[in-house]
User: Which sequence fits this backbone?
């Protein structure tokens, strides 16, 4: 076992690397702030409960986008498709318009979904829990739209990958 370095910065890097060994999908978490689309890429998405239908995401406390999504009645989660690596980078970028050239659908309640995704979940915030330097957001799923013909984008060791069959 590798012991976590004593230096805080190094320990954080070591943890980042360790957590990156767990493969995830990438989710676009988006909404309409008035007439302005807002959103961010997250890979901390997890399914939580069937009854009630709950999922979770973890949001960094310093996120500038989350406070804008946090006040919306609905938030759209789009599980990105294998061809949406560029969109993932765009939705995490600190500069420029995150929605430039992005095709999306918005609902009257403020949820925003990106086209070309593998799954859309229309969600309402159910709870916010303490999670260290992140906040754990529990979201109640109100509606689902599945696009089974679109394979998901995979994120592993800071790289974007596609699924393949296990041998
Ligand atoms: C693949 C990927 C996964 C990410 N996952 C998360 C996440 O789970 N939680 C989070 O707070 N930020 C995550 N981010 C970072 C956000 O997308 C975004 O860069 C960050 O919130 C800073 O932007 P903001 O200040 O507009 O929120 C991720 C970025 C990438 C590229």
Assistant:
């Amino acid at each position: 076992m590798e012991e976590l370095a004593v230096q805080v910065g190094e320990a954080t890097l070591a943890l980042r690397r360790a957590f990156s060994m767990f493969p995830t999908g990438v989710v676009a978490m988006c909404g309409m702030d008035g007439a302005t689309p807002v959103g961010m890429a997250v890979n901390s998405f997890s399914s939580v409960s069937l009854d009630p239908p709950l999922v979770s995401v973890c949001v960094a406390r310093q996120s500038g986008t989350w406070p804008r999504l946090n006040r919306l009645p609905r938030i759209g989660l789009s599980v990105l498709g294998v061809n949406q690596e560029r969109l993932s980078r765009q939705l995490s970028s600190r500069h420029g318009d995150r929605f430039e050239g992005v095709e999306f659908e918005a609902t009257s309640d403020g949820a925003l979904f990106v086209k070309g995704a593998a799954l859309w979940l229309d969600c309402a915030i159910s709870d916010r829990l303490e999670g260290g330097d992140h906040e754990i957001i529990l979201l109640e799923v109100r509606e689902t739209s599945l696009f089974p013909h679109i394979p998901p984008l995979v994120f592993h060791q800071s790289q974007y990958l596609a699924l393949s069959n296990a041998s």
Remarks:
- The chain is about 15% helix and 45% strand.
- The chain has a mean pLDDT of 96.
